[in-house]
Known about the structure:
The chain is of the alpha+beta class.
Amino acid sequence: MTAVGIDGIEIWTGKLKLDLPGTFAPEKGDDPEKYTKGLGLTNSSFPDVYEDIVTMGANAAKRLMDRKGLEPSDIGRIDVATESAFDHSKPVSTYIAGCLEQVYDGDFTHANKGERKFACLAGTQAIDDAYNWIRAGRNRDRPAIVITTDTALYARGDPGEATQGAGAVAMLIDEDPSIVELSTDQGYGSKDETDFLKPNQQFPSVDGKRSVQVYLSRMREALEDYESVTDDIELEDFTYAPFHTPFPGMVRKAALLAYRHVIRDTAHEDALADEIGRQPREDEYDDREAYEEAIRGYMDDLKTTEQYRTWYDTAVEPTLELSREVGNWYTSSVHIARVSALRDALTRDREFVGDTLLVASYGSGAQAEIHAETIREGWRAEIEGLDVDDQLDARYDLTWDEYEDVHDVHEYDMDVEREIEEFTQPDGEFVFTGWGRMNERQYEYVE
Ligand SMILES: CC(=O)SCCNC(=O)CCNC(=O)[C@H](O)C(C)(C)COP(=O)(O)OP(=O)(O)OC[C@H]1O[C@@H](n2cnc3c(N)ncnc32)[C@H](O)[C@@H]1OP(=O)(O)O
C-alpha cells in the first residue's frame, strides 16, 4: 500500500505576544509561577489588527506552496479546520483560496474546498478526510492542503483568558510523503458533552475544570479503542507522544494517566513495584471511593519515579516547546506539538527515519482520537526549512493596555470607536483591509 501522510508543514504565528508571567499575572494579582509552572505557559500569540484566521491561514499556505513549488492547479483539495469562523455559510477555505489566487498564476477552480468543525479536533479530522480521499483514488494524483487556523480568544475575565493564542498551520497531504506516514489504525473516545461550546457566540462558554476532566476521559477511551485494534502498546515503540496541548499542564496530567494505563501488567509496572507498589486494582477495594483514593496516591508516587520522569522528559516534554511560547492554537495545537517533537529530533540529530509517534488529538464537546505516524526519509529537510524561531522572536511584546485594545479589536460585536494603530508592519503577507458590500471580509497581499 502506498504511504499517505504529511509531505510539508508551514506555521504562521500571530505577530503579537502577551507575556503571561511578566504582564498578565501582575494585572490579575497572580503569582507568575501559576503560569510558568502551573499551566506551563510563558507567552500567548495574538493577531495584529490586520490579522485574522484568513490572513494567518493564507500566509501559512503561501509559504507551503512556495516551499513545495506548487501552483493552484496542482492542488486537488483545500480544507480548513477552525473553531473561530466568522461566516456561517461561506467556508474559510474560499476566502483563503481567494487570497492565494491574488498572488499565483492560475486558480483553484477544480479544487474541492470545505471547512471542518469539531473544536480543536477538526484539523486531525481534515487530515483524515484528505487521507481517505487520496486512498479512495479520487485525487487524480493531486495533493490536498489542510489548514488549521484560530484566534483562540476568551471573554475578558474568564479563567480561559490565561490560555489564549492565535496562529495557523498549513500541511500538504500526499502520497509518498516526506515527513510522516499516517497509520490506518485509529482509536476514538467520543461523547456528547457541554464542557466548552460557542452557541452562536464568538467567545466560548467554558466550564474549565470540567473540560480538563472531559479531556482526560475521552483520551482514556481513545487509548483503549486504539489498543483494541492494534497490538498492546509498548512505550518503547514511540519516540514522541504529541498531545493536543491547550496548555502544557493539561498534557502533564494526560501523560501521567496514559503512562499508568500503558504500563499496567507489564515489566515496567513490575520494575516499579519495590519502589511504589503495584497499581491498585478495583476488586481489591470495598468501594469506588477507596479505590480512587488509592489510585491518586499511586499517581502521586508514580510521577516522582525516575522511570516515569525519563519517559516524560524524552517523549512528552519536547512536544510542549512551541505551545509554551504561543498558548492554545485550538485546531493547530496538536500539529505544533508534532512540529515541536520533530524540532527536538533535529536538535538531537536523531537517526529518526522509521521511528513512530503516538499522536493524540482532542476536541471539546467532546472527542479524542489516537493514531500512530511513522517518520519518513525527507523529515529533516522539511523541518530545517521552518523559520518558527525567527517568527517568535519578531513578535511585538504587548503592554497590558495594548493587550486590552487588541482584544477589543478582535471582538466581533464590539465597535471600537478609537483608531487602533497596527503594532507591526506587514511585509510580504496577506492583510485584512475591511468589509465589502455584502459584509464579506476583504484581503490584500502587501509586498
Ligand atoms: C480548550 C480545550 O482544549 S479543552 C481542555 C482544557 N480546557 C481549557 O483549556 C479551558 C480553558 N482554560 C480554563 O478554563 C482555565 O485556564 C483552567 C481551568 C485550565 C485553569 O483555570 P484556573 O482556575 O485559573 O487555574 P488553577 O487555579 O486551576 O491553576 C492552574 C494550575 O496552576 C497551578 N498553580 C496555581 N498557582 C501556582 C503557583 N503559584 N505555582 C505553581 N503552580 C500553581 C494549580 O495548582 C493548577 O495546577 P493543577 O491543575 O495541576 O493543580
